[in-house]
Design a protein that fits this description.
Order of helices and strands: EEHEEEEHEE
Shape: globular
Largest sheet: 8 strands, antiparallel
Number of strands: 8
Strand content: 25-35%
Structural class: alpha+beta
Helix content: 10-25%
Strand order of the largest sheet: 1-6-8-7-3-4-2-5
């Protein structure tokens, strides 16, 4: 997997995202459906260059998959007011390990594990912020059902 990882260290800007909370991986699809319905009603979606972002607030190494807090997010051009299940989340600027990959959904766990291992082996320290994924395509429209995704780990 590491040869597919395309790993870089980059400064990422602060990002404002509209978010919906999912408790457990089994509910992330519903969270995205809620977010997209809200965005359609606000004429924010669909638009060219809209990026979806998944933010992880718990580690799968510590928290059971059905209990992890995950935010389904959409990158915004301007701040929003909290409305129903949709709320504004700010992802802080800073240094991140970024790995752009084109992979299938079952490969995500291995991709994260490989990236955290690379971080440790290369002497980087995790910064106490949330790791996230930025999606550059809709995997359901890809002929091989692959995601073009940036895995982002905050580091010191």
């Amino acid at each position: 997997m590491e040869n597919k990882a395309n790993i870089q260290i980059k400064e990422m800007p602060e990002m404002q995202i509209a978010s919906v909370l999912s408790i457990g991986v089994q509910n992330i699809g519903n969270a995205y459906n809620t977010l997209i319905s809200w965005a359609i009603s606000k004429n924010i979606f669909p638009r060219e260059n809209v990026k979806m972002i998944t933010v992880y607030h718990d580690s799968f190494k510590v928290t059971a998959p059905n209990k992890v807090r995950i935010h389904a997010g959409m990158l915004l051009e301007e701040a929003i007011k909290n409305e129903g299940e949709v709320f504004l989340e700010i992802l802080p600027k800073g240094k991140y390990i970024i790995s752009r990959q084109e992979i299938t959904l079952p490969e995500f766990e291995t991709a994260w594990n490989t990236l955290f291992l690379w971080m440790n082996e290369n002497g980087h320290q995790f910064r106490k912020e949330c790791p996230y994924e930025i999606y550059h395509n809709d995997y359901q429209e890809h002929p091989e059902k692959k995601c073009l995704v940036d895995f982002c780990i905050p580091i010191l």
